[in-house]
């Protein structure tokens, strides 16, 4: 990841941390264990699959309702990072609605999700050590 992209992601995560709603999402112990069992590479694969299948199309009939609020660490991360629907992607990340996502946009979204997850893992370890 380039230093510019890393800085952009750090800035957006900082902004999101100031949102009462976005900052209310955290991984729970079972999410942490799931990540440990599967490994970060598999979680990243899941993130790509979810984004490609739920967000990447030009038209999403159930936009705003396609991402569950629980059930997978990536879903939690999507709500925390405002990558859960096209409306949030536009509001927070300035990714236009009503067009298919580019591969570059998909990569960016997954990078945001994975950085948030890694931050959560680090915070969880710090709290429990």
Average pLDDT score: 93
Quaternary organisation: single chain
Global geometry? globular
**Residue share in helix:** 55-70%
Main sheet, how many strands, which sense, barrel? none
Strand content: under 5%
Please give the alpha-carbon distance between the first and last residues: 29 Å
Radius of gyration (Å): 14 Å
The total of beta strands comes to 0
Question: How does this structure look, described?
Answer:
Helices cover about 65% and strands about 0% of the residues. The chain is an all-alpha fold and about 130 residues long. It has one domain. Helix 3 crosses helix 6 and helix 4 crosses helix 6. The model has no long low-confidence stretch (mean pLDDT about 95).
Give a quick precis of the structure.
This protein has 129 residues and is mainly α.
List keywords for this structure.
129 residues; mainly alpha; globular
SSE layout:
Blueprint: H1 3-17, H2 29-38, H3 40-54, H4 73-80, H5 86-93, H6 103-127
Helix pairs in contact: 3-6, 4-6
